[in-house]
Amino acid sequence: MKKVINTIDNALTKIEENLTFLLLLSMLLAVFASFVSRYIFNDSLTWTEEFSRYVMIWATFIAASYGVKKGSHITLDVLVIYLSERGNKILRIVSYIFSLAYCVLIVFIGIPFINSLIETQQKSPAMHIPMYFVYSSIVVGTILMFLRYIILLFNETTTSSSTKPEEA
């Protein structure tokens, strides 16, 4: 089972790293193209601002999952300082369970919302892409985070020593 979890973890890492890189690179290229168009050719590209915004949203939610793996999200460590290693382990497990519950809540709220956007066929103003595609980033990123918390919870409960998320 540990080997399967590690395989899933490695696959998620490659997907998250590469997808985040490609999304941020495409955003950079779009902003650069807008700059060149505006200041060199005196003509503005109407779609680049919207494209950059939506790509940034997708990159943020994909990278949030990667942040779970690396342990780079904001944490309160007031209790961690005063608890024993066993207490810290219990606290991490409880934290992962609450995080899993939060992910489930976001997905269960997000899916009906996306379905309503599909039904209304709302489009973005400049690029005319379906808005459900943009809002799907929340659900996709949350599902990725859910998988990350499952991996952390599995690692925490199957090992005797501390298995904190990787340090960034």
Helices and strands in order:
Layout: H1 2-39, H2 48-70, H3 78-82, H4 85-120, H5 131-158
What features would you describe in this structure?
By secondary structure, the chain is an all-alpha fold. Helices cover 77% and strands 0% of the residues. It has helices spanning 2-39, 48-70, 78-82, 85-120, 131-158. The longest helix has 38 residues, at 2-39. It is elongated and about 65 Å long. The two termini are 26 Å apart.
Keywords:
168 residues, mainly alpha, single chain
Distance between the termini: 26 Å
Sequence of secondary-structure elements: HHHHH
Q: From the alpha-carbon coordinates, what is the Rg to the nearest angstrom? A: 20 Å
The total of beta strands comes to 0
Helix/strand class: mainly alpha
Q: Can you count the helices?
A: 5
Biggest beta-sheet profile: none
Task: Output mean pLDDT.
Answer: 92
* Contiguous uncertain segments of 5+ residues: none
* Dominant shape: elongated
Q: How helical, in percent, are the residues?
A: over 70%
State the domain count: 1
Strand percentage lies at under 5%
Produce a short descriptive summary.
The protein is mainly α and 168 residues long. The protein has helices spanning 2-39, 48-70, 78-82, 85-120, 131-158. 77% of the residues lie in helices and 0% in strands.
